[in-house]
Amino acid sequence: MAYWITSLALLIFGFLGALSIGQPFFWVGLAMMLLGAFRGRPLIFWPPLSAVIAYNLAFLAVAPLYCSASSPIGGTTTTVCSSLIGLRYSGEGSYNPSLMPAVWVGLMFAALTAIAVLAFLLWKRRTWPSEPTG
Length: 134
Prior knowledge:
This protein has 2 domains: 2-63 and 99-127, no CATH class; 64-97, no CATH class. Helix 3 packs antiparallel against helix 4. The longest helix has 28 residues, at 100-127. It has 4 helices and 3 strands; from the N terminus they run αααβββα. It is mainly alpha-helical. A 3-stranded antiparallel beta sheet has the order 1-2-3, with no helix packed on it. Strand 1 and strand 2 (78-82) form a beta hairpin.
């Protein structure tokens, strides 16, 4: 029951805060709701859930989070935005950097994480003895 309550809480919090910090929570809550029926099957449950979490972390690391604008007297305004890992996006005037680099990096990390988790689970299943059922 705690699993479903946590999933629903993440989903609701993510929906209510979608325009600020809620979107990553929404996606994790939605993934947990959709994958809830497969909790007892790690090969199906963990790769997509870890991929959603990896996407969120990579997106937040690469996306421009804060911007500052400066202009010399009589010159054009330059806007510089930075990400958590220090990537800088800059442009002239009222510049609004694209989020597409963060989306692509997030998708790449999500795919790599899902593959790595699946490979680990398959390796664990093959090499570690199963627990006795008795």
